[in-house]
Specification:
Elements (H helix, E strand, L loop, with lengths): L8 H9 L3 H23 L2 H17 L9 H20 L13 H21 L3 H12 L4 H8 L3 H23 L6
Helix pairs in contact: 1-2, 2-3, 2-4, 3-4, 5-8, 6-8, 7-8
Amino acid sequence: MESYRSHNEPSLVALLQSGDEAAFTEIYARYWKRLFGLAYHRLQSRVLAEDVVQEVFMGLWNRREQAVIQSLFAYLAAATRYAIIRQLSLRAGLALEEVPLDRTVAEDDGVQLKFLEEMMHEEVNRLPERCRLVFIYSRHLGMTNKEIAAELHISEKAVEKHITRALSILRLRIRHLFSAFPIL
């Protein structure tokens, strides 16, 4: 039996894409501990971290033929980040569509930014009605506190309180999302 330990990443990827199970086993042996550590650090749960790593490797095997993998570890780390985000979203009770794992690392930052924007939008929409309106008028429409107070027939002090409350709520709700974006 051929030893796969001496193979470099591109060679392992080529073997994996041709359906070589031994190459997959070698990839798993090389990277599972690092991916588990990344997942555990973010999720603080051994069971959830194991689930994330299993999801990542199942996805790697299932997408092996069509995946564009330039750097194996970067690909697996990005897949782990998306799996962590999905896990955090499930824990928070949010519905999240499956994020394709065959993106290149260069696209990763844009995907993360888009995801954060979507999550922020969802969290703003979950704010209490008056608080949400004040926040949108202030942050999205650029209205001054005086203009908002006149528009909603409330005092400027009430506008300030609503903005403070909105920011406080949003910070608490999305804190876990920012921790899901490790710097690799």
